[in-house]
Structures are given as structure tokens and as C-alpha cells.
């Protein structure tokens, strides 16, 4: 069985679901190690140990350069462990780190992975989730990026002490890409889109008012998503966009309101467990993939549903 | 912007010929390869062509000596995607095609594309889409930056080029922030669908494109060993592919005033609340 190395840019004592899934997957391999490109608190180290991680490699950097530090941390940890499997998050930044190191060390990279066997056969989604493909490395280390919501989060029972190693890295201040400015995004109290059990999404049909969508989302404890028509119109942040060029989600329940169901939108949500669609137009393509379709006005249906949920919960 | 002083830019824009996303797409159960009939220029690469042509237009135009070379690696039909890029304003085209390229994974693809960029020579900027719509890996641009030793400016939401400094600035989302990143040329730039609005070629542009040349190249022409690419030169192998059963339409009801309640009944039945 190959040894596994997991990479995180940041790791706190309250890890995201995606991070916990990566740790769970790694715990099934030899000598699970973790590399983190910033400081890891004592409490966060305890979380790592509870997943059976035996070794932590860290180094932080203040340099205003982009990507270089993370690349150096992962590369150094890879050299130190000689891992046969490197596990990364599925976001663009993490993919690119894996991609560069796969080239640098003539290894293999597989993205959008939903599972990996002990002999490194990866199962992944292809063609916007319409195919499930098995692929394996034929040379070098496998860099695999794991789709969120793929694995049952399960801390390992055995508590092995965690060894920590501070990596000594060369200064990366001569790197090619500089961070000239950084703007914080508005924080939200709602669950993160990629991790939410329920997503309520609105499209052009909300006609500028996300109120009913947000209200139903709050009644359900759901995340709020949107079509590109709605984000392009500026009614909601681009971060909420679901689809080919936005976020891919696979929640238990996806409620689509005032969205026609274009192929690029379906690409981001069609592997949801249940889909409910509300649309005025009986011919909207979204009805072809909905478990429950409601031909009606979202401005009436959503508030009624939100009120009914609150009534039943009370 | 001092137009006269702009040293001509040599830009390669990478365009991929992919199965049209509007149709059903299939992976052959025998060869485990994607059926590539009905292919078109990847719609996300239109944003790359637009970004490359706009940089030229904002800096003295093609009359100033800038070049935008639309390049692809792919089978016979891929030349059509290069032609579409020429209609959108690219100045010339390259089509790398060789039987030995079949079955290339991203590591092998980036090797071939980097060799193509080296073959062109003295390239200042490589522009790509944010992702191919068939492989959907979003890793080839970063791999190219690694191989070429160019700065990596990827997933750009917005692009600005400072001709005097020969410096690019992009906006990119990262963790909980939107960053402004800058780098000097040479660079690999990948653009998202937020970066611009790709133009629709008019009749004049279509006629003008007919006069532009597309050069066909094989591996020997760019000096790349056939064993370095294709299935042999790849580090991954696909060993199985199954189509997920198509989703079926469920019940569709008309709202006659109680559909919100029906929605909640459905949630309760499925134990979703
Ligand atoms: C390169 C590229 C990438 C793209 N990426 C994405 C992506 O990632 N995500 C994405 O979503 N799209 C994407 N798109 C856009 C996509 O093709 C569609 O244009 C978009 O999804 C349409 O959004 P919509 O369904 O909200 O709007 P429309 O298609 O205009 O549909 C609005 C729907 O609302 C219904 N409606 C109107 N009023 C009401 C009401 N009061 N109550 C109920 N229903 C109502 C209408 O019947 C209609 O069906 C992309 C396009 C391109 C070219
Ligand atoms: N075979 C190819 N020919 C030309 N460009 C490509 C090819 N493969 C990938 N690219 C470029 O790389 C980008 C990202 O592709 P990918 O990493 O496959 O998602 C695409 O948008 C293209 O610009």
C-alpha cells in the first residue's frame, strides 16, 4: 500500500468537510502525512492526530507572492515522504499545485476524484457528471484532487502521536507572480455551497429579488446558489454561480427556482440526490431532470413552502 | 499608452476542438476514448481568443506588428477550431496533428503544447481558456507555465496589460479573497468567462480569415519524440468508463395555490426535513 500525503494551504481546529474527507481518505493508506503552507495551532494538530495523521510538515511565509510558497511546501514534503499518493482539494488553486508537481516529477494527475482504492485506481466524474471513469497512474506519484461530498467523514480510532516538522525553505520573494492587492469577500452565515446538504438556487426568474430564495434557504438551513444569468445581472455575487464555469454541487437536495436548465447550469447540479424545480414555463428543460416539478410562480411557491416548513417545525 | 514604442507582442492562443456540449457526449466502451464527432471550438477558449485579440487592439493593433497565433493539438477536424479563431481575429494558425498523440493525458498534452510554443519561438504570452469543456481538468495552463518557466496567471476574472512595463495584471479569486496579481512577460494567462464578451465574427471577418494561413505540423516537424506523448508518454491510464443512467423526469404539478405545501410534503416523504 502506498503512503499518502495531504496538502492544505490553511488548516484550523475547525476543518471544512472537504478537508475532513481528505484526511479520512488518507487514513486508509500507509503513514498518512499532512503538509500545511501556514501555521497550524496546537488544537488543529490534535484534529490531525485524531484522523491518524502521523506526520505534519509546515512552513509559513509572509512574502506577497502567489502560489510559490505553497508549491515549495508541498514539493519539500513530497521529497521528505516519498509519498506515492498526494491528496489535494478539488479547487483550482490546489489542482494547479498538483498539476505543476506532476510535471516537475513526471507523475500522474487525476482531478474530480470521488474515490481511490488501495492500489490507486481512482474513480472520477467525467463529462459534467454524465460518466463515471476509472483511471490509474502508470508512472510516478499520483496527485489526486478529491471532489467534496465523496467520502464519509470518519476520524480514525487509533490515536498515534503526531510528529511535527518545520520545513526549512528557500525565500520565495523572487517569485514571478506578485500579489498587488487583496480584497476580502463578504462573509456569509449560510453553509458553504460545495458542502451544503441543501441548496436553493435562483435564476433570471427571480427578477432581481433573491428574497424568496434566501427565505426558503434559511428555513431549510440551506446554501444559496444562482444561475449565470442571475450573477451576470449583478443580483447576487459571482461566488454563488452554479454550473460549468461556477461551482459544482452534489447536495442531497437542490431546489431550482426560475432557472431554465441550460446545459452549462445542469453541469453543476445534475448529480444532486433530489432535484425540485419551480418554473413558470412547462417546457423548461429543468423539468426533464427534476424529481418534482412545479409549474408556477416562484414568488408564490417559495414563500408558501418556507412558511409551511416553519409551521411544521414549530 | 505610447503606441509607437510598443515592442510587437508574439501571442499564442491555445484552442481546443471539443465535442459540442449541446449534444449528448459519449465515451466509447471499447477504446475508452471520447467520441469526437460533432466537435467545435471549446466555448471557453473563445474567451482566450478574445483576450488575446483585445490586448493587440488596445496596443496599436496588428499594424504594429503584433501576432496572435491560434494553436491547437488534435485530430483532422481540429483545423476548424483554428479557423474559427482566425475569424475572431487571430492572425495565423497552427495545427499539431499526429497519430502518436492519441491518448495523451494532461502531462503528455502539456509536453506537446510546450514543444509547440518552443517551436514558434520568442513567445511573450500564451493565452488559454479556464478549462477544456471535454477533459475539464483546468490543469494544462499551470503545467505549461511549469514547463516553459513562464509566470502563471490563471483563472483571470479580468485582465489588464501595461505595454510600457510589459506587465500583466489579473484579478483572481483565492480562498476568501479576490486578488490582483501582477507578472512580467513571458506568461501563461488563462481567462474565465468573466473576463470579456467574445465577439461574434461578422461577414468581413469571415472573409478576411480565408486569407490567413493555418500551418499543419506533425511531431517530427516540432522535433518531439513520438514516445514522449500519446498513451505511451502519459502517466495515467483510463481502465473503465460507465455512463451514469440518465436522470428521469419525476412528477410535474401545476400550482393551483397549494404547490408550496406539496413541495414540503415531498420533502417530508423523502425525509429531507
Ligand atoms: C461559456 C458559458 C459558460 C456558462 N456557464 C454557466 C454556468 O456555470 N452556470 C449557469 O447557470 N449558466 C452558465 N451559462 C449560461 C447558460 O447557458 C444559460 O444562459 C443560463 O444558465 C440561463 O440562466 P437562467 O436559467 O437563470 O435564465 P433563463 O434561461 O432566462 O431562464 C429563466 C427561467 O425563469 C423562468 N421564470 C421567469 N419568471 C419566473 C417566475 N416568476 N417564477 C418561476 N419561473 C420563472 C422562465 O420560464 C425561464 O425558464 C454559461 C454559458 C456559456 C456560453
Ligand atoms: N489539445 C489542446 N489543444 C489546444 N489547447 C488545449 C488543448 N488541451 C488543452 N488546451 C488549452 O488548455 C486549456 C485548459 O484545458 P484543460 O486543462 O484540459 O481543462 C484549454 O482551455 C485550452 O486553452
Write the layout of secondary structure elements.
The complex is a heterodimer of chains A (314) and B (273).
Chain A: E1 3-8, H1 17-26, E2 30-36, H2 42-50, E3 55-58, H3 68-81, E4 85-89, H4 92-104, E5 108-116, E6 122-126, E7 131-137, E8 142-146, E9 163-166, E10 178-184, E11 198-202, H5 211-220, E12 223-226, H6 228-232, E13 253-257, H7 263-266, E14 274-279, E15 292-295, H8 298-313
Parallel strand pairs in A: 1-2, 1-4, 2-3, 3-9, 4-8, 5-8, 11-12, 11-13, 13-14, 14-15
Antiparallel strand pairs in A: 5-6, 6-7
Helix pairs in contact in A: 5-8
Chain B: E1 10-14, E2 17-19, E3 39-41, H1 45-57, E4 67-73, H2 79-87, E5 92-96, H3 106-120, E6 125-129, H4 140-148, E7 151-156, E8 158-162, E9 167-174, E10 177-184, E11 187-191, H5 203-210, E12 214-217, H6 219-222, H7 230-233, E13 236-243, E14 251-254, H8 259-269
Parallel strand pairs in B: 1-4, 1-6, 4-5, 5-12, 6-11, 7-11
Antiparallel strand pairs in B: 2-3, 8-9, 9-10
The structure holds flavin-adenine dinucleotide and adenosine monophosphate.
Describe the structure.
Chain A is α/β, with parallel strands linked by helices. Chain A has 2 domains: about 5-165, 3-Layer(aba) Sandwich (Rossmann fold); about 200-314, TPP-binding domain (Rossmann fold, 3-Layer(aba) Sandwich), CATH 3.40.50.1220. Chain A has 8 helices and 15 strands. Chain A has helices spanning about 15-25, 40-50, 70-80, 90-105, 210-220, 230, 265, 300-314, and strands spanning about 5-10, 30-35, 55-60, 85-90, 110-115, 120-125, 130-135, 140-145, 165, 180-185, 200, 225, 255, 275-280, 290-295. In chain A, the strands form 2 sheets. In chain A, strands 7-6-5-8-4-1-2-3-9 form a 9-stranded mixed beta sheet, with helices on both faces. In chain A, strand 11 (about 200), helix 5 (about 210-220) and strand 12 form a beta-alpha-beta unit. Chain A starts with a strand and ends with a helix. The model of chain A has no long low-confidence stretch (mean pLDDT about 95). With about 270 residues, chain B is of the alpha/beta class. Helices cover about 25% and strands about 30% of the residues of chain B. Chain B contains 8 helices and 14 strands. The longest helix of chain B is centred in the middle third of the chain and has 15 residues, at about 105-120. Chain B is globular and about 65 Å long. Chain B starts with 9 loop residues before the first strand and ends with a helix. The model of chain B has no long low-confidence stretch (mean pLDDT about 95). Chains A and B meet through helix 4, strand 5, strand 7, strand 10 and strand 14 of A and helix 3, helix 4, strand 7, strand 9 and strand 10 of B. Strand 15 (about 290-295) of chain A pairs parallel with strand 14 of chain B, so a sheet runs across the interface. The structure holds flavin-adenine dinucleotide and adenosine monophosphate (AMP). Adenosine monophosphate binds near residues 16, 106 and 129 of chain B.
